[in-house]
Amino acid sequence: MERKYTLSNYMQVFATLGYVACEDSKLEDGIEKVALFTDEDGSPSHAARQLISGVWTSKLGDAEDIEHNTLEALEGDVYGTVAQILRRLRSDIYANTEIRPLILPM
Fold first, then answer.
1. Is residue 39 part of a domain?
2. Is 11 domain-assigned?
3. Which terminus of the chain is less hemmed in, N or C, by CB atoms within 10 Å?
């Protein structure tokens, strides 16, 4: 894979972690979802992860992690727009907790 910041490359990286593309951000039992945002040029700009509760969590640079009820809450000039939703089965080891590691290749 060529080392470029493209949505396609980010999707390939997430695929190595078991993620596949999906159609929507609706909460699904036993499924973990990640939303990839892109800026106006189509370059990846942000990622958010859906918690077991259905709320989304995001890391805002050096600031604290935040939770938001919708992905649209972050859309705009700073974080871009949602370009792709990815999904994978939740790992059994973390199924009953909100505290799970997430490595974002950003």
1. yes
2. yes
3. N
CA angle 5, 86, 59 (to 5 degrees): 65
pLDDT digits (tens, 9 = 90+) for 10-47: 999 999 999 999 999 999 999 999 999 999 999 999 99
Tally Cβ neighbours within 10 Å of residue 105.
13
* 97 occurs within a structural domain: no
In this structure, is residue 58 part of a structural domain? yes
Among residues 82, 101, 106, the alpha carbon closest in space to that of 32 is found at 101
- Placement of tokens 């992690």 in the chain: 65
* Per-residue pLDDT tens over the stretch 60-91: 888 889 999 999 999 999 999 999 999 999 87
pTM, two decimal places:
0.82
The total domain count for the chain is 1
